[in-house]
Amino acid sequence: MKRLIALALAVFSTVALVSCTRKTTDNDSKTTLKVAVLESAYGKDMWEDIENAYEKMNTGVDIELTAEKNLEDVIGSRIKAGDWPDYVHLATGREAGLTETLIKEEALEDISDVLTMKIPGEDVTVQKKLIEGFTDTLATAPYGNGKTYLAPMFYSPCGLFYNAGLFKEKGWKVPETWDEMWALGDRAKKEGIYLFTYPTAGYFDSFIFALLAEAGGSEFFNKCMNYEKDIWDTDEAEHVFEIMEKLASYVEPTTVANATGDNFLKNQQLILDNKALFMPNGTWVVSEMADAPRAEGFEWGFSALPAIDDERYSFTFFEQGWIPKEADNKDEAKKFLAFLYSDEAARIFARSGAVQPITNSSDFVKGENALFYSVYDDGARAVMGGFRATEALEGVSIGETLFNSINSVISGDKTVSEWKEDIEKVSDKLREALK
Amino acid sequence: MNARKRGTATFILACLSPALILMAVFMVYPTLSIFAISLFRWGGYSKEREFVGFENYKILISDTRFWDSCRNSLFLIVTVTAVTLTLSLFCAYVLTGYDIKHKSFFRVVLYIPNILSTVVIAAIFSAIYDPSRGLLNSVIGFFKDGPPILWLGDRRLVIVSVAIAMVWQAVGYYMVMYMASMAQVPKSLYEAASLEGAGKARSFFSITLPSIRPTVRTTLTFFVISNINISFLLVRAMTGGGPDGASEVALSYMYRQAYTNSTYGYGMAIGCAIFIMSFALAAFVNLITRERN
After folding, report:
1. Which domains does chain B have, with CATH numbers?
2. Residue A131 maps to which CATH number?
3. For residues B3 and A349, which has the higher predicted lDDT (pLDDT)?
4. What's CA A431's distance to the chain center, in Å?
5. Using a CB-CB distance cutoff of 8 angstroms, which residues of chain A are in contact with residue B45?
6. Rounded to a whole number, what is the distance in Å from the CA of B84 to chain A's nearest CA?
7. Is the model's pTM score more than 0.90?
């Protein structure tokens, strides 16, 4: 009898457990779309609003939203278990490198056909609505074969941020050439203000990309991104190295010590405290430093990089969305992706400060942000993209060599020629591993 | 009789089986699978894996960044162990051997760092090392003029800065272990030594230290393992391996290769190398501290 009771209890527990783990849904007829997004500085609310808006428009779709700050940890283990999300919003350049890994493993779906799709609720195709150039970059077509694998999302002009109030107070002019920049650096130093600081060495990506474009135009920039042979040994590259070497002598001396993921806000604070004049950054810095104390009369200013010859460049950073090759509902995910470029979605995103790269984006940009986004109207040229995808090479990383080493160049532990030599070596290795 | 023996054996096996199963599932299997993955070229997510044999290990041998990170790990293991061992033995001896007021207070104060999370310790030391407003530079500033010392920005100093934080975190934990061991030493030995004219220092080296030798020996193995783990957590939270890889330790380099650089197979090869090295180091420590008859 006791055995029978024990057996019955065991069966009951198992059934109860299975019932608990099985998802109970009252809408079995609906398609479940698994959407995984990074909860970044823009917050989670806008994605919940997008979920509601899309479900309202498509009553047959039920979105299962995962919005996490540590998205790679959450979906990484699910992916390993074969449970792939249908749509993912996660940009490249993150420490966990999930998007890069999937690009290298060719695990992303070709989304070129989304460009020709009509945006749900509108009478225009995605391609027509996107700002020109966004889908021609290596950040969206990483294999250089003309096919789009990553959708451009939330663009942000990057350049030099400064205290416009200080410039007004001192009667200084924002430098338009590097010669003017050095002259201003010497003048400011006499008043105890350093010319330059940076949050972390990683922020030099947008800075160096714009500098490369200034030195040799977009063609030279693309050659660098494609690891062309001897490209770092050209006159154009030499200009870039010369500027970096000179810039190192103008950097605020405590910057390197605080250029870590934990302390980078202290470097940004140097601008607010009038201890340094310029820092490379993106438009998100305004909300990031919203509660920080600041010098009297502080006012955010934003400028493209000073020109080497006559053209000034500003790197356009954007995030990326993608659909995994292994996703269950790829077609529905593509429709959802097209919806993200609708006016309705753009309005929802803009409320949190995220700006979609669509032709009418200026309709949604308000306040201080409008100043930043007008940089291209003021004559600066845009440069976009990143390095072309390669096979993953053990112990070799262009990002670490090109950007992280800048800390050593600035602290004087590495000479510019040693830095250049390292970049050439890594570029040569990665050229052999191009996809 | 045989039936009873068999019954006892079954009972013991039944009692041990949950622990054995858990150990097999959560320790033995993952360890073996890491060794297996290290023989593949794989990014860690897709189904595509390429068997490369010992190629990852060949790359490892010529990877200077890996050896730099190992050098940092070894530096931390040696210096943090030596300093923490000395300080914790000293504190334990003072708190057990001397009649100090507020003994419990000191014991709690010294132990508190051990219960703090690594992120909190990283934040505390980031504030202490702040070049402009940090406690350390402010104190040094009283005695010495000149540019601020960049504790986390100087390639030569950054690993020392990490070591100091690790010592601060560990002293209390080992002190409590040594205090428990010292309490077992018979008082009569000290009384006899005192009658013979031995001072406190002499008593420490001739009575206390030999008496707690087994505990010290055990903790030395703990030092090797915990230094490898805590240095990874602290470096990730405090310096991110920077500036320019100067504070990279073996485990943080493994993480960087396995995830950021999309070379998961290579990362696991690094993991295996660390596994073997830490075992070898623990065995070496065990060997040289073995009791000689």
Report:
1. 35-288 (1.10.3720.10)
2. 3.40.190.10
3. A349
4. 24
5. 76, 79-80, 98, 101-102, 105, 107
6. 26
7. no
